[in-house]
Amino acid sequence: xxxxxxxxxxxxxxxxxxxxxxxxxxxxxxxxxxxxxxxxxxxxxxxxxxxxxxxxxxxxxxxxxxxxxxxxxxxxxxxxxxxxxxxxxxxxxxxxxxxxxxxxxxxxxxxxxxxxxxxxxxxxxxxxxxxxxxxxxxxxx
Length: 141
Prior knowledge:
The protein is globular and about 35 Å long. By secondary structure, the chain is an alpha/beta fold. Helices cover 47% and strands 16% of the residues. The mean pLDDT is 92. It has one domain: Rossmann fold (3-Layer(aba) Sandwich).
């Protein structure tokens, strides 16, 4: 499957190790992840040279082409929120995961749209299992 992975860039990179673990797990499970570069430590340098309009067009096209979205939302991000809303508007399934104990927007927690899941995780094993359950649900559709 083609999975769009979304995470904070300019909002902060404290969860970079989890971003990397999620993307590596998706690849190891045979999934395409067009946004895999977001998990790299050098992503800010890579994205610095790309025009904002190009980023927007590229990412919108990737969301349109994906089978589902996995968003790590522990760190607030305008871009991640936009990507989630855009994907939901297209009828895509979205999993939002966040570190247990982190305050997450009520706009996410209170959303009960079909295909939209918000789940907290304790550790890397939890979040990878959560991703697997989400992906199994996409396969069943």
